[in-house]
Design brief:
Elements (H helix, E strand, L loop, with lengths): L25 H8 L12 E3 L8 E6 L2 E10 L6 H17 L4 E11 L5 H17 L4 E8 L4 E10 L15 E4 L5 H9 L5 H12 L4 H5 L5 E6 L4 H13 L3 E4 L7 H8 L5 H10 L3 E3 L20 H8 L7 E5 L4 H10 L6 E5 L14 E4 L1
Parallel strand pairs: 4-5, 9-13, 10-13
Antiparallel strand pairs: 1-2, 2-3, 3-6, 4-6, 7-11, 7-12, 8-11, 9-12
Length: 374
């Protein structure tokens, strides 16, 4: 095994896939979960469950208190143990921020092969604890098991006022869409693992993945903030589709406005792709329409245009993000304040990427229409 900073091995040597690219494909996940809904009888205190693919569960604990909880873990997206712990912790806390809540505490979830020793385990745990400390959420305990692949994440718990919860189901016609972090980390991490990306470019992606989405707590207090989610393994296309489906609307995205790592664009244009990106296109691509016609015809299952269209744009839209940015739908008059809150919390690339057009979603309840403009 190859040495890495903060530990004795390269974690990628143990993992088949990493980060939010580990997620079960959306189509397969729906087929698993659909039969379960018939058996769910939710008490009135359960304000948010998994029905609309939201980011966390919400339980009303009192007139002024809601408890927000989520669990998230994955295999290494990077080789360095400390970076892995930090990225996984930031990703798990993002689910709490995506509901507009403040993290309270977390429990660590760690699974490691026998070959990985104490030094590497400590580096992972310390990386996660450091990020949780930034969020003001102590790691209060956790659980460890032996496993063939290394896995790490958190069960995260937060709090919010019951009337200030932001779900993915509140987007309204006329809303602006704001994305908080650049796209492309899935492509960049895959390229780094295969030796196609320089360390300096990789560090840019790692820094973004370790950045907390702490703006979410303040966005929930902003008049005109209507819907919120975070962009992770299903890519921008998938999580925007879920927001549109839950809200009963469609969306318009301006591709040139997307915050995007330049190196990710280069990789996509050169034909680099990820298995997660291909799964995302198969799951969500039916509702996507490109204004210039590219991508609407002649596609194979992976979303590759046999006629040579803008395949790279689809790769970016579907790129599975790990600890990606928040996606906010807000009234136009709230957009400037929302951008300032993103920037206050170290998301300097936050940008207005589109809007919710008038009317209903334009297709049907299961396939929201998303129009992509150049």
């Amino acid at each position: 095994m190859t040495a890495a900073r903060g530990g004795s091995v390269r974690l990628g040597d143990f993992a088949k896939s990493g980060g939010c690219g580990c997620k079960i494909g959306a189509d397969e996940l729906r087929s698993w979960l659909a039969p379960l809904s018939a058996f769910s009888v939710a008490p009135e205190e359960l304000l948010v469950d998994g029905a609309n693919c939201d980011d966390a569960a919400v339980w009303r604990a009192g007139a002024d208190l809601a408890i927000v909880a989520s669990a998230d873990f994955f295999a290494p997206v990077v080789d360095d143990p400390a970076d892995f712990g930090a990225i996984a912790a930031a990703n798990a806390l993002s689910d709490i921020y995506a509901m507009g809540a403040k993290p309270l505490f977390a429990l660590a979830l760690l699974a490691l092969p026998r070959e990985i020793g104490a030094e590497t385990a400590r580096a992972i745990l310390n990386g996660g604890r450091a990020v949780c400390a930034q969020a003001g959420a102590p790691v209060a305990g956790g659980h460890t098991i032996e496993c063939a692949e290394p896995l790490y994440g958190l069960c995260a718990v937060g709090a919010a006022h019951p009337e200030k919860i932001l779900t993915n189901g509140g987007a309204r016609p006329g809303d602006k869409l704001i994305l908080g972090k650049p796209l492309g980390t899935g492509l960049m991490c895959a390229a780094h693992r295969s030796g196609e990306l320089a360390d300096g470019e990789y560090q840019k992606a790692a820094a973004a993945m370790k950045t907390l989405n702490a703006a979410g707590t303040e966005l929930a207090q902003l008049p005109g903030a209507n819907a919120l989610t975070d962009v992770t393994g299903f890519g921008l296309l998938g999580h925007l589709s879920e927001m549109c489906r839950a809200s009963g609307v469609g969306a318009r995205v301006y591709f040139e406005r997307l915050p995007l790592f330049a190196e990710a664009a280069r990789l996509a244009k050169a034909g680099k792709s990820t298995a997660g990106g291909k799964r995302n296109w198969r799951a969500f691509g039916d509702g996507v329409f490109f204004e210039n016609g590219d991508g609407n015809d002649g596609d194979d299952d992976a979303g590759n245009d046999d006629n040579g269209g803008d395949c790279w744009r689809r790769e970016i839209l579907c790129d599975p993000q790990t600890s990606g940015g928040l996606l906010l739908a807000c009234a136009p008059e709230a957009a400037a304040k929302a951008l300032s809150l993103f920037q206050k919390h170290n998301c300097q690339n936050a940008a207005i990427i589109g809007e919710i057009p008038p009317g209903k979603n334009g297709n049907n309840a299961n396939t929201p229409r998303i129009t992509v403009h150049p």
